[in-house]
Amino acid sequence: MSEHTFGGQAASARPQRPLVPAMRRGAAGRCPRCGEGRLFGRFLKSVESCDACGETIGHHRADDLPAYLVIFIVGHIVVAAFMGVEAATDWSSWLHLALWVPLTVALSVALIQPVKGAVIGLQWALYMHGFGGEHAALETHPEQ
Asked: pTM to 2 decimals?
């Protein structure tokens, strides 16, 4: 049985990349490698490469994971707060809507960029999706 690793090489042949600092740098909107260059050129569009260290970033594949994580986080916060307020008060449905809908939207917009940056930092630290130096190849189904 062969060892499956990201980056196409055995894990022992690659230098370790620090996971938590890379995710922190990404969440702060900085390059996961050096922490100096910008990670995003626009709100959710990552830059092609870091201005400071030259690390290629544009090929990452965060896909839907950041949105899923934001939905998970915001859902738990808003639903728990809603249930607590509902149990403690007798607010009308309109008052709940006036509070929870804007709060949900605001939290979602506030969290999506840091979460996407952290996912990119995770991918960089684990040599995923081209961060290991290999070229991206399409995966085929075993029956083909």
From this structure: 0.82
